[in-house]
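Q: I have two molecules that I believe assemble together. Could you output structure tokens for the complex as a whole instead of separate predictions?
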Amino acid sequence: MQLDLLVDQFKKKDTMAFEKLYDMYSENICGVINTIVKDDALAQEICQDVFIKIWNNCESYNASKGRFFTWILNIARNAAIDEIRSRSYKNNKKNLSADYFVNILQQREEEENSTVDTKGLRKLVKNLKEKCVQIIELLYFRGYTQKDAAEELEIPLGTVKTRNRSCISQLRENMAVR
Amino acid sequence: MDVEKYIASGILELYIAGTLSEKENLEIAEYAKEYPEIKKEIEEIEASILELSKKASPGYNYSFKALMNKINGDVKVVDMNEKRSSPFLSYIGWAASVLLAVGLFYMYQQNQELKSDIEVVEKQNIDLEQQIADTDSSLEQTQELLNTLRDKDISVISLGGQEVSPTSYAKAYWNKKEEKVFIDAKGLPEPPDGFVYQVWSLKLSPLTPTSMGLLEDFATDEKKVFALNNPNESEAFGITLEPAGGSESPTLEQLYTLGVVNAS
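A: Yes, here they are, computed for all two components at once.
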């Protein structure tokens, strides 16, 4: 079925359409959350809450919010960031801007029972430069604006757009290689 | 718009990231409808982020059913039931009513699902019906045309190409009884902007042209068959290219086709 039609039905609270969208995106959304919270079990828990939120707010989605995936991506990272903020407030240990998602690799390979596909992830980002990993992380997984990303990375505002495009292109090439 | 340049600017990547304004989002959604290259690029960028996030995912084991149960709060109903420690009969009563409620809810959900299925199918039906109707009416028009041309009172006049455009040709189907002429102008080139073909009925000696009318909307008419009234005692038909709106008398240097009516 067409994505547009599916989203239309979903907005009318159609459970069947919602189930299809859930099948399509739940794993990805869980992955996005995991890049922020870096905790497999917690990521899954937040992921379920995110989909409940999506269902309860289905009428509020429209084309002015971008692609359907972009909309749920935004809800997911906000939920994950809120969670981290409230936790770090409590124990002050975890810091949101501590390290980038590629560190999931290191962490998870040490943990024996992790279910993250570290091999696949490593392959996908293998020749991405550090600055690519950073910019992708900030824009897609942390929800930084162009301006915030430029300040964080200490590069001119106009460079954000072009650097991001060339980094995503690299990512797409890596996908095509497999 | 320069689509390639637009794509290369990197704005579509930001569109997927969700960092653009509502206005920009709407604008890009429109472009995606208009330009297939843009739509494809958007989908590929999205696919790369989907792939990356999937690889970072710890997997996801919650079934959709579990999610819906959580949303609908079914779990709560069961919990309350378990906590109750009442006499046996009352217990049965509660269990039955819970079962009934769950059953009713289940039926309601099934019903909703079927309804939305029907809605989708109905939408598809309407599309198909529209297609059939369009085809039917086009067929009807063609048949009508064919019947007209087969009428026994029709005489057929071939109009050959002239100096200005030797490869042009046209046919006139003249129904004298009904004083009508159908011009089949498929063999004429599209007129340049600001010009229009004009059809003339000619008397030969002395040469007297009478305008029969213009072949309006030439470019958009796919069948290229035009019906004109002709109360004249024509001896020949000619088609000339004239400035938009037509002329009082034919511009003979721009005579495209000409054909003489056979004496019968």
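A: One point stands out. Residues 154-260 of chain B form a domain with the Immunoglobulin-like fold (CATH 2.60.40).
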